Amino acid sequence: MSTAILSLRDLTVDFGGVRAVNQVTLDIQPGELVGLIGPNGAGKTTVFNLITNSIQATSGDILFQGKSIRNKMPDAICRMGISRTFQNIRLFPQMSVYENVELALHNAPRYSILEAFVRTPRASRIEKETRQRAFELLEMVSLKDYVHEKAANLPYGLQRRLEMARAMAANPSLLLLDEPAAGMNEDECNDLIKLIRQIHTQMGYAIIMIEHHMNVVMDLCAGSRIYVLNLGSILAVGSPAEIQSNPDVIKAYLGERRNVR
Amino acid sequence: MGYINAIIILGGINVIAALGVAILTGYTGLFSIGHAGFMALGGYMCAIMVMEFNVPFAIALLIGGTFAGLCSFIIGYPAFRSRLRGDYFAIATLGFSEAIRLVLNNTYEVVGGAFGYMGMSTLTTLPVILIAVALALYFAHMFVTSQYGKNCIAVSQDEVAAQMMGVNLLRTKLIALFISAFYAGVAGGLLGFYMAYLSPSFFSITRSSDLLAAVVFGGIQSLIGPFITAFVLIAVPELLRFFAEWRLVVYGLLFVVVMLFRPQGLLGYVEMNFAFARRWWSKLTAKKDASAKGGAA
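The joint structure predicted for all components is written out below.
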C-alpha cells in the first residue's frame, strides 16, 4: 500500500468526551474517486477537517504521498496538493468570481514583494499567465459569463461550481468535495455528476466525495469504492452494489425492524 | 499662502499615514489604534539619521520607514501567532504605541525626553510632500492590486477559507503590517522635518484614532476614500477654527451616522480607477464621431 496518495492510520479525534472519529483507516490511490457516506453526525466532515488539519487529531497519523502531514499548517497542506470545498459554501463574497479563482492560483505569490511594487515585466507576465489559467478553469465549470460578477451575487448552484473551480485552482493532486450536490434538484445533480466525472478524467485528481444524494454517489463511484462512516467508525467498504445490500449500512441509515408483533 | 501650504503639508502627511492604515485595516481587516507609535518610531529614527549621521533626507525617510516596519514585527509576530483578531489586536497595537510614547517621554539621552528632539531644520516643503504623496498612492495601489494585495483581501473576507486555499496567514498579515508601519514611519519623518522638532506628545492616541477614523469614513477596500477623508479631516478643522471645541462631538456623530447608513464607509469597495474618465472620454469621442458622420451625410 505504499503507492497510496493518502492513507489515514487509526485516525482518532475526541471533542471533550465525544469520540467524533474513531480509528479510521483508509487508503486512497492516485486518481481514484471514492465516496464517503454516512448518516448525519457520523464524522464525515470531521475527517476532512482532520486531513486539512483545521482540527488536530488526538491520535493516529495522516500520510500524504508517503509523508506525515499531521503537524503541517492547513495552508501548507493545501500547497502540498490537498484542496477542498466546503459543505456550507465559503467563497470570498466581496471578490469577483474571477478573483476567487485567481486567489487560489497565487496563494503563494510567484513574484517577490519588490516586484509587486514596481510591477516588473516578469511580474506582469506571471499575472497574465494566472489570468489565463483562471479563465480556463472558469470555462471548465461553465462560469465564464459571470467572470466579473461578485461571488456573493451568484445563485447557489453556481457558487458551488465556483468553489470547485477555486479548489482546482490550488492545483491539487487530491480533491476533497464536501457535499457538492447539497440542496440541488435532480437536473442540477445530473449536471454535477457530469462535471465531477469530467474533472476526474481530465485532471486526474484523486477525489474523495462526501455526499448524501445516493444516486450521485452510486453513479460516480460505480467503478470504485464507497466508505460508510457511522458514529465515527468505518462501518463498511465496498462497491456501490455491495454497500446497497449491506445489512449494517441499511440498519445505520434506516434503523432496525422491531418485531413487536 | 503659508497658511494654505501648512494645511496641504499636514494634510499630505496625514494622507500618507492613512494610506498605511488603509492597507492594514481596509484591505487586510486588522484594526489598529496604534499607528501613532509607528509614526513616532519612524519620525525619531529619520531625525536621528539626518541630524546625527548626516544621511540625506530621502534616504533617512526610507530608513525611518523600514525601522518602523521592522519594529512592527515585535507586536505583529506574537499577536498573529496567537491569532489575535479584531478588537484584541487593536488593543495590542494601542498598548504598543503608548509604550513607545512613554519610553520616548522618559528617555532624555539622544531623543530629548518630554522636551522633544529639537534643532531640526524644515526639510518637508510643499514639493516634497506632493512627490511623497504621489509615490505613496502609486505604491499602495500597486501593492493592493498585486497577488500579495489580493491575498490580504482574501484574509479580510474569510480567514479560514483563505488558509484552506493555501494562503499563509501569518506571512500575509506580517507583510501588510510591515508596509502599513513603513507608511506611518515615513509620515512621522515628514512630520518631524516640517515641525522642525519632534515631541512624544505628537504621537498620542488621538492621532491613531484620527487615522483609523479616516479609513473608516473613507471606506474599506478603497485607497481613494481614505485619501480624501484623511485630507479633509485635517483641512476642515482648520477652516472651521471657531468650531474647534465641537470637533470631537462632530466626529462621534459622523461615526454613528456612517456606521448606521454606510457600514462599508463612504467609498467602501470603490477602487481608485480612471474607468469613469475613460467612459466619459469614449462617450465624448463617440458623439464627435456621430456628429462628424452626420456632417458627412
